[in-house]
Amino acid sequence: MTRRHFLNHLATASATLPTLEFIAHVQAHAADLKKRQKACILMWMGGGPPTIDIWDLKPGSKNGGEFKPIPTKVPGIQICEHMPKTAMVMDKLSLVRSMSTREADHGRGRYFMHTAFRPNPTVVHPTFGSVVSFELGRKRPELEIPAFISVNAPSGSPGFLGAAHAPFVVDSNGRIRNAQLAGDRNRLMRRLEMLTVIEKNFINSNRGELPLAHRDIYKKAVNLMVSKQMEAFRVDKEDPKTIEMYGNNNFGRGLLMARRLVEVGVPFIEVGMGGWDLHQNVFNTLRDQRLPILDQGIAALVQDLTDRGMIDDVVLVWMGEFGRTPRINQNVGRDHWAASWTVMIGGGGLNNGQAIGATDKDGVACTTQTYLPGDIWATVAHALGIPTTTVHTSKRGRPMKLANGGTPIKELIG
Amino acid sequence: MWRIMLAAAVLAFGGGVVDWARAADKPFTTGSSDVLIDYINQQIRQAWKDNEVEPSPVADDAEWLRRVYLDIVGVIPPAEVVEEFLADRDPAKRSKMIDRLLDDPGYVRNWTTIWTNLCIGRQTPRRVSRKGMQKFFREAFARNRPWNEVVYDLVTAEGHFEENGAVNFLLAQMTMPDNGVQATAKTTRLFMGVQIQCTQCHNHPFNDWKQSQFWQFNSFFRQMRRIDHRKPDPKTGRLVDDYSELVFQEFTGPVYFEKRSGLMQVAFPRFFDKEVDPGPGVDRRKELGRLMIEGEKPLVAVAMVNRMWGHFFGYGFTRPIDDLGPHNPPSHPELLDRLAREFVKSRYDLKQLIRWICNSEAYNLTSRFGPNNEIDNPAAGEMPLFSHMYVRSMSAEQLYDSLIVATEAHKSGRTSWDEAERQRQRWLQQFVITFGTDENDETTTFNGTIPQALMMMNGQLIQNAISAAPGSFLHRVLSQRTSDAKKIDRLYLAALSRHPTRLESGVALRVIRATPNKVEAYQDLFWALLNSNEFIFIH
């Protein structure tokens, strides 16, 4: 009994079964194809990271804080002294130092940065991972697991693209809860047969999209339960030295899992790292807790992707909801700040090793052209081969430009 | 008897025999009469007319009963209640059912769950007592305390987190020393539907809220302090967590805040246009509580009416339900206004508010829609017109508790309330996922995506639900000397609150007869029922 037989039970239209030869052909070439497959890894810094202390230091300013800048592999680009490993791979990364995004509330900032659209009560815009799932997932028939996976972070909503493109949210321990088939395949067949009858009855009674989405999600879940690609989640199967290199913590394991997922053809993985909402005690927390983990993880991922010849096919993005106030508050913390901050982007065949845009000497304003999340996502789309002229249609029939009509950053794609 | 047969016949043909045109003309009643219900119906109908939609027909009894159970008591109806209700020929049976559910212990449990989650989240913050919070709400809902009093208590509470459970609402907003910023934002949003969290740092971009107003509100929350007591562990001698409490601390004068420009400003306690004495001897939270619930139509009443309506329809009069104001006009402004005023006049009687909503025509319509009202689709961003019920998903709590009803686990009565609640909380935790911010905001993976489907297909909870071990629901059904058709019917009633269609029972019979191990076949049928779209959706 093949997996495709199961799926057929849940399919409403009688799908044509691919021939055995075709499947063999796909499998033989899959390894080859996957090597060239494009993907994006988003490192999501939940809470809003103080980029003024990480990527765009202001030595000599009253806002400068406690950290010193250090040189990187790229002459002229300096980053925080507590990011020494990342400094050594800076040629594979770029900094966009003039983000000006206005949304300084967690919920609104999270939405805006993930979708490129500002929140609007009448439409839910898809988080960009869902866009990539929609655009690239359907072009990868050999992919049996979801095309958008989010590790350690809830990410956002698929919005009008529908639940089939929702992030599959997992944690970094590598065990997917409840993915183990309960009972044998014959029983599953029997169960699905009866399930299909009930599902159809409800779908046909005209109750909107949710019942259809339910069917699609079950199809995906069954697909996943019987897939060998589930091994990609098993970070524990990696060489302990590799795990050590990334850092045996949620962020490090998440990035390592992301690399494994890219290797089986997943086009978008979000890896979350929380704890950046540093309203107080910002410097000690960064130095002792956040930055060592961040530095090790980013550097290991870049190195690993480079060693495997994947760095030009995998675009990396590092961002949070917003940056943090240049002014240091009375609790030695920094508050929410969206007017002038930094997003990191890298890999993906972009012209890396650049610092694009700049802020003034105190970090309170951008002194160059400013950028919006749409520009970041348009750059990512460009790197992934998704036409930036793509337009989606909301459920209400409104056209929605990819990345809210953002423009790829010319210095990066030239 | 003819009624049962008729109901069964309607279901057997997929419910397609309803006369759409006639259903729209007949004045609908649940058997309850109240001028306010007439007003609701009239207002909702006016919007149908204005927008040129025809309402869907009234839901059949099986569909409606399941919905009203899930909405009021948070669980699906037991099979025997379904049978009784379908057979009942009393024309006022719907309104009677609403009253009966409002007096059911499940009412208290359901609303305690809802409000505990709203006040302290699903993942209890450290040094907050979920038990205390639940106890407060249990008492409030059991005694049907006026909502204004409940809000007043939550805003003004002081004391030990188990002795006065109301303090847990504020304790949960005080997980870090932030000068009451989080408490300010959460209180206004949750109880008044006013979102001012952005104005902490700057004037609101879309409405009239000014940064100074945030800090005026905030100045009400400066006279509180949490004390987290510790005690030595008798075994190790090490200090461990003991109780926490919320106490009054002296604070007078203005609060200081920083403009974007770096300029320092002051803000005095002020509730909209009402100033409060900033001097000593004034308990500012008591003043705030009093001002919040004062008048003929305070925001506390509007926000609760809107939230309640949203609870029963899936969509409130504004979207989101907790963002009221001129920047976000409601879909039915006059109805919201009148309901809020009547709610205040009723002395904030929550059960009365629920009665008004559940006895309305709109609440009694089917979730099926047709060509004449398919544009009424708020999921696509349209303004809700309530011309049919909107399909929604059960919450994780509703699923868990419904499985207990479907499998009649409550009848075995093996575990204590405390132990049962602990198991429930442990199970619920698997879906909670946090955003990693200081606001303790969280979301759930019980959102119709793959983790939920995997849990439903393979999780221990479902495996327990379809267990056929002695004492289990399936064991009892299978031990009865009835036909396979009867047994199948019983499983459908338990899971979907309706009889199977002819096609459904035919397929089930065929599978059961073809399977050597009959017990397994029944387990598989029950599995299919519990995994179906019809089971997980409130419709």
Labels describing this entry:
A: 414 residues; alpha/beta; Alkaline Phosphatase, subunit A; 12 helices; disordered N terminus; B: 539 residues; mainly alpha; 3-stranded antiparallel β-sheet; 50% helix
Can I get a quick summary?
The complex is a heterodimer of chains A (414) and B (539). Chain A is 35% helix and 14% strand.
Report what the structure shows:
The complex is a heterodimer of chains A (414) and B (539). With 414 residues, chain A is α/β, with parallel strands linked by helices. Chain A is 35% helix and 14% strand. Chain A has a single domain (37-180, 235-413), classed as 3-Layer(aba) Sandwich (Alkaline Phosphatase, subunit A), CATH 3.40.720.10. Chain A has twelve helices and 14 strands. The N and C termini of chain A lie far apart (51 Å). Chain B is mainly alpha-helical and 539 residues long. Chain B has three domains: 2-103 and 297-390, no CATH class; 127-290, no CATH class; 397-538, no CATH class. Helix content of chain B is 50%, strand content 8%. Chain B has 26 helices and eleven strands. Chain B has helices at residues 2-12, 20-25, 35-50, 61-72, 79-87, 93-102, 105-120, 130-142, 147-156, 167-171, 181-192, 211-218, 284-292, 299-313, 333-345, 350-358, 396-406, 409-412, 417-429, 450-458, 460-465, 473-479, 484-496, 502-514, 518-531, 533-536; strands spanning 159-160, 224-232, 239-248, 255-258, 264-267, 270-271, 274-275, 392-393, 432-434, 442-444, 537-538. In chain B, the strands form five sheets. In chain B, strands 1-3-2 form a three-stranded antiparallel β-sheet. In chain B, strands 4-5 form a two-stranded antiparallel ribbon. In chain B, helix 3 (35-50) packs antiparallel against helix 15 (333-345), helix 9 (147-156) packs antiparallel against helix 13 (284-292) and helix 23 (484-496) crosses helix 24 (502-514).
Describe the secondary-structure layout.
The complex is a heterodimer of chains A (414) and B (539).
Chain A: H1 3-10, H2 20-36, E1 39-45, E2 69-71, E3 78-80, H3 84-87, E4 93-99, H4 106-115, H5 128-136, E5 148-151, E6 168-170, H6 185-203, H7 210-225, H8 240-246, H9 250-263, E7 268-273, H10 282-307, E8 314-320, E9 323-324, E10 336-337, E11 341-347, E12 355-356, H11 373-384, E13 391-393, E14 399-401, H12 410-413
Parallel strand pairs in A: 1-7, 1-8, 4-12, 5-6, 5-7
Antiparallel strand pairs in A: 2-3, 4-11, 8-11, 9-10, 13-14
Helix pairs in contact in A: 1-7, 8-9, 9-10
Chain B: H1 2-12, H2 20-25, H3 35-50, H4 61-72, H5 79-87, H6 93-102, H7 105-120, H8 130-142, H9 147-156, E1 159-160, H10 167-171, H11 181-192, H12 211-218, E2 224-232, E3 239-248, E4 255-258, E5 264-267, E6 270-271, E7 274-275, H13 284-292, H14 299-313, H15 333-345, H16 350-358, E8 392-393, H17 396-406, H18 409-412, H19 417-429, E9 432-434, E10 442-444, H20 450-458, H21 460-465, H22 473-479, H23 484-496, H24 502-514, H25 518-531, H26 533-536, E11 537-538
Antiparallel strand pairs in B: 1-3, 2-3, 4-5, 6-7, 8-11, 9-10
Helix pairs in contact in B: 3-15, 4-6, 5-23, 7-8, 9-13, 11-12, 14-15, 14-16, 23-24, 23-25, 24-25
